[in-house]
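Reopening this one. Same input as before:
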Amino acid sequence: MSAPSHLPVTAPPPAHLPRDPGSVETIGPPPAPVWLQRLSLAVLVIFCLYLGLLIAVLPWWKEMWDRNGLLLQYPTLHSFLTRGPVRGLISGIGVLDLWIGFSELIHYRDYRN
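Same output, byte for byte:
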């Protein structure tokens, strides 16, 4: 049975070469360059912090939450979303997003070749 044409074909290492018992073989593509890993971390952290702060603060901002034209068209939804516990739940999701951003920043490590 042959491999599909879209998958790369790799040959096993030659049998005459000795294997290092301490080496670890990685499966899959090589890691991205370090600069790309750091750039993606910066984008992720900025996105999480921005979105988390917005979601945490927005329910308590009266001009944006209580007088929202979209929500005023649906009175039942508006009365539900203006309750304190619902606002707290939405703010909690924002705080969780902030925590994810800070956690990614603190626990970051480079994957090098």
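So the earlier flakiness isn't reproducible anymore. For the record, The chain has a mean pLDDT of 84.
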